[in-house]
Amino acid sequence: MTSQDNMPMTRAEKRQARRIRRFDNPWMNPKLTWGVAILLGIVAIGIIGRFVWNLDLVFTGSAPLKLPPLGAENLRGQPGVMEYPLGTDGAGRDMLALIIVGAPNTLFVGLLASLIGMSIGIFLGFSAGFIGGRVDDVIRVGADVMITIPPLLILVVFQSAFGDVTLTMMALLIAGFVWQSPTRLIRAQVLSMKQSGYVQMAQLSGASTTHIMFREMLPNLVPYLFGSFIASVTTSIVTAVGLEVLGLGPQRIPTLGRTIYEAINAGALIQNLWWWWGIPTLLLGVMFIGLLLINLGLDEVSNPRLRKLS
Predict the structure, then answer these.
(1) What is the C-alpha separation between 38 and 44, in angstroms, rounded?
(2) What's residue 10's pLDDT?
(3) What does DSSP assign to residue 114?
(4) In this structure, are residues 127 and 188 in contact, taking their beta carbons and an 8 Å threshold?
(5) Which of 59-73, 192-206, 283-297 has the lowest mean pLDDT?
(6) pTM of the predicted model, to two decimals?
């Protein structure tokens, strides 16, 4: 070993070494890390907040009306107070309590709807791409027809007819409109992988169709599936918030979309109660940024050409 091998690495060499490690392990790229951290932070708000904050303040009339956040003043000259650091709304509810309860609820609807939709998409996509024939024709035509139907319109009609729904029911309704894109994506990938050597070897060895689809082919699609799942989460959250801003969805369960609807309906814009609608809107923006970063990070995982060493 020469004396040069014992010399400490310079900062530039350390940065280059970190870039090489990230290139070798694409799952550790910064976009994916930051995106996951943002979403975990929102989940942590809901978990930790339940232990450190009084969630009874989420009920109507539990706090003074229309108090601004700490450090601001409302139109009546009232300053924010420490007891309600994010202010209160026009119904006498603490905004921090609404965020602690509402943000995880909104994320829960998106995750559950996407999980159900992705499960349907994986099953139908593999069946269409691998089995082919009439099965492929029926699934492909069904997905093409469903993708042309405006989901928000159908959901508005359904919820108007059936009234109040739970978070789980709303997620199930949204899941019925987010399986088409994963189905089409997976079908296309399976069609291209169907002619691969390892798939043909598995067929020659007598492996069952289920084994080939879900034990041989599915692991190679994990980055694509994660990317499709994140896109479905974003679509599901946008759909859920759209319903809630229209006054539909759960009526008595706090969510970010429901809070924005109540602010608009109570004239918060005219009364300059910017925190009532602004804070949940900002949190939704942060949530979408986190999902976007995860999607970009997953693109780097599945596409080596997007990774850079410099």
Answers:
(1) 10
(2) 65
(3) H
(4) no
(5) 192-206
(6) 0.83
Domain holding 127, by residue range, is 52-295
Tokens read off for 253: 């369960």
pLDDT given for residue 191 in this prediction: 84
Q: Give residue-wise pLDDT tens across range 205-242.
A: 777 778 777 777 888 888 788 888 888 999 899 988 98
Q: How far apart are CA 267 and CA 36, in angstroms?
A: 35
| CATH number, position 196 | 1.10.3720.10
Q: Is 113 contained in some domain?
A: yes
Distance of CA 112 to the CA centre of its chain: 10
Band of residue 75 on the pLDDT scale cut at 50, 70, 90:
confident
List CB contacts of 232: < 8 A, sequence separation 6 or more.
113, 114, 117, 118, 178, 181, 182
Question: Running DSSP on this structure, what letter comes out for residue 84?
Answer: S
Contact status, residue 60 vs residue 91, Cβ threshold 8 Å: yes
Nearest 5°: CA angle at 143, between 200 and 178?
Answer: 105
The total number of structural domains in the chain stands at 1
